[in-house]
Amino acid sequence: MLKNSQHSYGWIAIAIHWLSAIAVIGLFALGYWMLTLSYYDPWYRLGPWWHKSIGLSLLALTIIRLVWRWVTVRPELIGSRYEKFGARVGHALLYALLLVTMVSGYLISTADGSSISVFDWFEIPALITTIPEQEELAGDIHWYTALSLIILAGVHALAALRHHFWDKDATLKRMLKPQK
Amino acid sequence: MKKLLLAAAVGAALSGGLSQAQAADYVIDMEGQHAFIQFKISHLGYSWLLGEFTDFEGTFSYDEANPGAATVNVTIDTASIDSNHAERDKHLRGDDFLAVDDYPEARFVSTSYTESSDGKGVLAGDLTLHGVTKPIEIAVNEVGAGPDPWGGFRRGFEGKVTLTLADFGIDYDLGPAAKTVDMYLSIEGIRQ
């Protein structure tokens, strides 16, 4: 039940998927909102603190997720040849956008060599500080990939709903609860 | 008598023209990094935030015999703002402050220089910042001039001016103590 089977996701994959979904939506909304705050707003400093802490946690979770995806069996995709192809491309893009968004975010805050605090619990040090105009370039990439990610996640959700209500198959159900 | 007056007037005009021609032109030494444009702004009224523009270029002309004819022209790359904090610099380059995508350059063009006897002076000119051009007056101190050890001739000035951010359309609220920013300029020119 923890691991994936040929036909369904296990609890570990399900938990990581929905945690990631909540984190992505929350991070996008928080990131958008925190840029509108005035200097004297109590969230002017708290917003970025949560955004960076959750973002780096999600990056770690995503790396674990990819390893888990690699070591466990993947449930077979449901649908026509074209749907399966579309699903593969879509999922690969989601992973790519997740990683590029989070890494570019990390590169903004560490551009001057500063480390990033994760929940004031530990610090992630800077690794790359030498890209010209790093915080600007990383900032642009961060915005456009985050926007693409949230749009593609919406398409992903619509596709799941289509499978559930239109095709009436187990695509969505097996991501909610392991199926026999 | 009339002819004499005319000759005197022509002579004066000529010598004026000559001294004008002798006014030395200097290029601000960016290659050797002997020029600085720094700023200081209050943080909440409790401390100072310091930073600088690292990338700019400019020229000036100055004639010791006729300092009133001095001119200065400086162009600043606004994206080169550096306050030693990447996240803050990114914010400062953004639309809340310098909007460097829209206004990549700031420019100062002098309009007059008034020198007093003690090596100080007031440099008036137009500053274009954030797309807004305003006359400003920089309090100048003549630091020194003379031959350098490598065969050239150098001349340096420092200047101070306080800018009100709202005058230049920068109105992000940093609090009542941070309405103005103090600029400190230190430039060294190499005579051409």
Automatic annotation (TrEMBL), chain A:
It is found in: Cell membrane. Its cofactor is heme b. The chain crosses the membrane at residues 12-34, 54-71, 92-109, 141-161. It holds the Pfam family Ni_hydr_CYTB. It is a multi-pass membrane protein. Residues 9-177 form the Cytochrome b561 bacterial/Ni-hydrogenase domain. GO terms for molecular function: electron transfer activity; heme binding; metal ion binding. InterPro entries: Cyt_b561_bac/Ni-Hgenase, Cytochrome_b561_oxidase, Di-haem_cyt_TM. GO terms for cellular component: plasma membrane. Keywords: Cell membrane, Electron transport, Heme, Iron, Membrane, Metal-binding, Transmembrane, Transmembrane helix, Transport. GO terms for biological process: respiratory electron transport chain. It comes from the Bacteria. Belongs to the cytochrome b561 family. This is Cytochrome b. It comes from Pseudidiomarina halophila. The lineage of its organism: Bacteria, Pseudomonadati, Pseudomonadota, Gammaproteobacteria, Alteromonadales.
UniProtKB/TrEMBL annotation, chain B:
Residues 1-23 form the signal peptide. InterPro entries: Lipid/polyisoprenoid-bd_YceI, TTHA0802/YceI-like_sf. Residues 25-190 form the Lipid/polyisoprenoid-binding YceI-like domain. Keywords: Signal. SMART domains: YceI. The keyword Transmembrane does not apply. This is Lipid/polyisoprenoid-binding YceI-like domain-containing protein.
